[in-house]
Amino acid sequence: MNGELARWREAFMARVATPWYVEALFDRLPDIVFSIKDRQGRYVAMSEAAVIRCGLKRKQDAIGKTAFDLFPRPMAERYTRQDERLFRTAKPIIDNLDLTVYRDGSAGWCLSTKEPLYDGSGRVIGLACISKDLIEPSRAGLIDAGFADTVDYMLENYDQPLRMEELAQRSGLSQAQFERRMKKIFHLSAGQYLIKTRIDHAARLLASTDMAIAEVAQHAGFSDQSALSRQFRQVTGFAPRQYRQLMRPEPLE
C-alpha cells in the first residue's frame, strides 16, 4: 500500500463516528459470538449471540464483567489462560476448539480466533474474539475433551516436531479416526492443519518483523529455510521474500 492510499484509509476511518458498527454486523450472525476485552479480561463489547449465550437480557449487563462473572468456572479459566497467552506473546490464537454451553444447557464446541488490539504506541491493550459454533460435529460426537486438548497442543507446539501417531494417541483415537475427525471439522488432514498453522505464523512474522527468513523458519516450526520456502510457495504462491515485499507497506512520507 502506497503512502497516499494509507493516508486516505486512515482519514476515512477517522471520520467514522463510532467503532461499534463491527458489533452491529456480528449481531446479524446468530452462530457467531463476537467480543472485545481489555487486558484485565473485562468485556468492552459483545454481540447479541454472546449476550444470549451468557443468559443476559441486554448487552449492558456484560460490560465491565469478566469471563468468571458470565461462564462456568472451568470455561472461564480456559478462556483466561488463552487470553493471558495472547497478552504475553502478542500472537493471535487461531482456530482454537473451545467447549461452550448453549442456552438450553447442552454442551457444544466452537472454533475461536483471538486477535490482539494495540494502542497508538504499539502496546497490546486488549483483544477481539470471534467464535463460530460447530453444532453438527458436536452433535455427531466428533469433538470431545481429548480431541480438543490435542488441537490445543498442536496450536501451542507447532514449532516442535509433531508425529501424527503420537497426536492421535494423545486424543485417545486411532490415527485413522483422528484424521477423519480433523477432516470433518477443519476440512484438512492433521498434517495439512499443522502446515496451515505453521504457514500462518510464518506469514505473520514475515509481514510484521524484520526477522531473517531462516529465523522465521525456525520460529514457525520448519526444519530450515528451504523447507519453509518450499511449503510457503506451495500454499501461497509466493516465496517468503516476495510475500514480505508484498505485505510490508511503504513508509509514509
TrEMBL record:
Keyword tags: DNA-binding, Transcription, Transcription regulation
Cross-referenced CDD domains: PAS
UniProt cross-references to InterPro entries, sorted A to Z: AraC_XylS_family_regulators, Homeodomain-like_sf, HTH_AraC, HTH_AraC-typ_CS, PAS, PAS-like_dom_sf, PAS_4
Organism of provenance: Tahibacter amnicola
Endpoints of the signal sequence: none
Gene3D superfamilies noted in UniProt: Homeodomain-like, PAS domain
Protein's recorded name: AraC family transcriptional regulator
Family annotation (SMART domains): HTH_ARAC
HTH araC/xylS-type domain span: 148-246
Source taxon at top rank: Bacteria
